[in-house]
TrEMBL record:
This is YHS domain-containing protein. Residues 1-29 are annotated as: Disordered. Residues 50-87 form the YHS domain. Transmembrane segments: none annotated. Pfam families: YHS.
Amino acid sequence: MTNDLQASSSCCSTSAPNPAAAGNGQENLLGGMSDDMTTCPVMVGSPVSKNAAEATGLYRDFEGERYYFCCAGCGPAFDSDPAGYAANMA
């Protein structure tokens, strides 16, 4: 039941690829964060590869910081309230 709620409320239910899953799909996203990994400020807790997000344009710069997104739907959401979403990363 929880998965149904997440799927219906997720901005990431688009067909855009998740940059965290880029590559061969064999990355261990639960084994800790490498320098390349961060989390999405919109879908808090969703892992994001910085390199993959930059390669696909899934990022925004706000007040001197770069924020990386897990999917194409998160950029427009971030644009609607960048200060609020940036606070998620503090």
